[in-house]
Amino acid sequence: MEAGRKLVIYERDTGLFAYWFISLRCEEECYRALRYGRPLSVAVIEPAPDTESWEATDRITKTLQEHLRKADLAGYLGNGRFVMVLPETDRAGALLFVERVRGFVPDIQAGVSGCPEDGRTFSELYETAAARLPDDERPPPKS
Fold it and tell me: Are 141 and 81 in contact (CB under 8 A)?
């Protein structure tokens, strides 16, 4: 690493984890889930179309900061898109989590995926969850 250069694990605008860190940690959680036969889910949440994106982004950020479990990981990918890694949570539990978030921020859309049925890596789980968003046309985030 260059002198004076630091890897920042937090995204500047929200204080949530940066994409590269979520990706790394999810790979570790995937390995653990597969090795021990434990559930793991990934949820992708973003403001619904026709909403004030910046306002919804602020409300989603606040909700995630206040209501995630200690074991859960939340990251902001930009353009209003959030990703959560939910260890020890199956897809049904992830859908319940999304509904809890929707109780605080009703104008969201979400997609969820579970390990191993929907993928065995962060990339596979993210792509599956994102594909389950209504009308998803955004490119995947850059690492």
Answer: yes
Phi-psi map region of 114: left, alpha, beta (phi>0 left; psi -120 to 50 alpha): beta
Higher-scoring residue by pLDDT: 66, 140: 66
**Arch. (CATH architecture) of 19-117:** 2-Layer Sandwich (3.30)
Nearest C-alpha neighbor of 113 from the set 104, 122, 103, 105: 122
Distance CA 82, CA 101 (A): 12
In one letter, which amino acid is 65? Q
Quick: pLDDT tens for 20-34: 999 999 999 999 999
CB 59 within 8 A of CB 104: yes
Helix axes 91-104, 53-67, angle to 10 degrees: 120
Could you tell me the residue ranges of all domains in the chain? 19-117
- pLDDT-derived band at 54 (thresholds 50, 70, 90) equals confident
Order of strands across the sheet with 73-78?
73-78, 81-87, 40-47, 108-115
